């Protein structure tokens, strides 16, 4: 994957959105007006800035228009399983095969806004924490752990051992999403864009809830479905006396 981000506006947007940046290469003769903003953001985020000759910048850009500034994107770091249990009443979002990076970023953004403890994704059949995901999360990925596990079914079993109730969101659910009491420690399990919850994952859930589909389409976008259920959790926990 190309880790170079070339151009004043592209670098500024990458820094502003919370994307992980390893370093910035800046031409000594660059004078674009927005460079002051880039340097201010870099200082705030402790991103090192290297002043380079124009020839060095040209070589790094490999023919891409750069306006004298190139950022090198870094790899996002996954959290540990224990990070999911830092809060007294965990609310974990488990994603079974979300492969679209924009969808994953959108779910991360909503989960962080709803006060979730973390996101769990499988190593296979899941979008990695790429710059696209980080940008789609609008910076939320820096504030909520995303944990990658080898075996999603085993991870769910471990959550049960720690006292979580596992709630699957699935068309086969016997009750509507508002019919469950989410005020205890819970994990919400949502399926991927094309196949939904896999059979073994569905069978590990303590209960399945459904979202009503009253129109002609069969399902909601995964990020929308996650938002609907997450904010039911927020509603119940906020009203708790």
Name the features:
60s Ribosomal Protein L30, Chain: A, alpha/beta, four-stranded mixed sheet, seven-stranded parallel sheet, Alpha/beta knot
Could you say which structural class the secondary elements and strand pairing correspond to? alpha/beta
| Sequence of strands across the biggest β-sheet | 7-6-5-10-8-11-9
H and E order: EHEHEHEEHEHEHEEEHEH
Can you tell me the CATH topology of the largest domain? Alpha/beta knot
CATH superfamily of the largest domain: SPOUT methyltransferase, trefoil knot domain
Number of H- or I-type helical stretches: 8
Distance between the termini: 50 Å
- The low-confidence parts are none
Average pLDDT confidence is: 91
Question: What kind of sheet is the major sheet?
Answer: 7 strands, parallel
The top level CATH class name of the largest domain:
Alpha Beta
Question: What's the overall geometry?
Answer: elongated
Helix share bin:
25-40%
Percent of sequence in beta strands: 15-25%
How many beta-strand segments? Answer: 11
Q: What Rg do the Cα atoms give?
A: 21 Å
CATH architecture label name of the largest domain: 3-Layer(aba) Sandwich
- Our count of domains comes out at 2
Describe the structure.
This protein is α/β, with parallel strands linked by helices and 241 residues long. It has two domains: 4-73, Ribosomal protein L30/S12 (60s Ribosomal Protein L30, Chain: A); 81-239, Alpha/beta knot, CATH 3.40.1280.10. It is 33% helix and 21% strand. It is built from eight helices and eleven strands. The protein has helices spanning 8-16, 35-44, 54-61, 101-113, 131-136, 152-161, 199-204, 222-239; strands spanning 4-6, 21-27, 49-52, 69-73, 91-96, 118-122, 146-149, 165-169, 175-176, 186-191, 207-210. The strands form two sheets. It has a seven-stranded parallel beta sheet with strand order 7-6-5-10-8-11-9. It has a four-stranded mixed beta sheet with strand order 1-4-2-3. Strand 6, helix 5 (131-136) and strand 7 (146-149) form a beta-alpha-beta unit. Helix 4 runs parallel beside helix 8 (222-239). It is elongated and about 65 Å long.
